[in-house]
Design brief:
This protein is of the alpha+beta class. It is built from 4 helices and 5 strands; from the N terminus they run βααβββαβα.
Amino acid sequence: MLLRYKKTYEKIAMGLLSFMPSEKGVKRLQETMHMYETEADWQLYLYKKEEDFIGLVGIIMEENEYTLNHITVNPSFRGEGIGKEMVTKLRAMFPTKECMSTEDTDLFLQKCTQKEEGAD
């Protein structure tokens, strides 16, 4: 289940976000969290499975598209399709918008798309 970020989830979100190579260092993490907390078009979601938060996805919303800015899964849960499920849930939430990627998320988004095309 994807849940919209709330300030009470800050430490959990920072912990998950720290798994992204581009987000190493406390200062960088704090800057990123500040953007998600203050910029209306930056949206952060946490993925909860049973009682645990195990994934995080951050997007930057625009008029006709959104950019997958961050996506990360707790290493203990990788390889279970959770990242792909988060992308699928985002697409369902915003069906009229195109999902774009950044340099950091492009390869992952391509893999998700290839798997979807291969499933037909």
